[in-house]
Amino acid sequence: MAIPFKASYPLFLCLILFCGVNCTEFEVGGHDGWVVPKTDDDSQMYNQWASQNRFKVDDTLLFKYEKDSVMEVTEEEYEDCKSPRPLFFSNNGDTVFKFDRPGLFYFISGVRGHCDRGQKMIIKVLDIEATPSPQYANESAPKPHKKSGVAELTPMRIITASTLFVMSTFLLQLYV
Fold it and tell me: Which residues form the Phytocyanin domain (predicted)?
């Protein structure tokens, strides 16, 4: 018996809700946004904020600011508070930066003097592949192997959104 296409809308809605909520947007600096810290005591405020959050690949940072900029830089440029060639630069006042890999990310203001006064931040993006999952909690359970820095997929890994979409399309065609 074929299910009418309209009857499959709830299935699509469930798939969208299941697949679409996999990343988080973090607003840097909260209500104040990306600004120069007001006092010397606040010079570590962005790193303190970053240490209280957990970032993963595909999460985004929202930098809100006026008459400023944000740059992703190397560790050395972060320490020097200047970069002639940043890895990323934006000065549109409403910058979104998406994490595309695990590891450390260094951000500074591009306005002279702002970084020296504390407008800089280090973010650690977690390597989800390296984080033990419940299936590996037992010492006797098989552990994932790594080749060339990429973890092999096991049957217990999370199914990607594109795989779910292909599977749902196939199943829908069975009913039509």
Answer: 24-127
Pairwise CA distance, residues 100 & 87, whole Å: 13
Q: How far, in Å, are 42, 54, 117, 143, 166 from residue 161 at the CA level?
A: 41, 22, 43, 24, 9
Please, are residues 69 and 90 in contact by the beta-carbon 8 Å criterion? Answer: yes
List the domains of the chain with CATH numbers: 23-133 (2.60.40.420)
Q: What digits encode the pLDDT tens for the residues 21-56?
A: 467 899 998 888 999 998 888 889 999 999 999 999
